[in-house]
Design goal:
Elements: H1 2-20, H2 37-61, H3 67-88
Helix pairs in contact: 2-3
Length: 89
């Protein structure tokens, strides 16, 4: 009797667990809420902030730099440029 119970319950538990690990074919919606005027103002200000960061990176990379400073400037550019693109859409 115990073997029958294990043979029945174990596959069901395994199936349930593996089903929960699956990925939906549809992409997740980030938000269904409307944006406010404050959201728009924040995004505009962040665009300016990121643009200023890229301008500073450009100025920095025009000079002779220590390798770690140059690497940091590149990391900033690599992070900020895609965010500008995302917020501009």
């Amino acid at each position: 009797m115990r073997a029958l119970l294990v043979a029945t319950v174990l596959p069901l538990l395994l199936l349930t667990t593996l089903t929960a690990c699956g990925d939906d074919a549809t992409p997740q919606v980030l938000s269904d809420t409307e944006h406010s005027a404050q959201d728009v103002a924040f995004a505009r200000e962040m665009l300016q902030h990121h643009a200023q960061a890229l301008a500073m990176v450009d100025l920095t990379l025009e000079r002779p730099l220590e390798p770690d400073v140059a690497a940091l400037a590149e990391q900033i550019r690599d992070a900020q440029a895609p965010e500008i693109e995302l917020m501009s859409d």
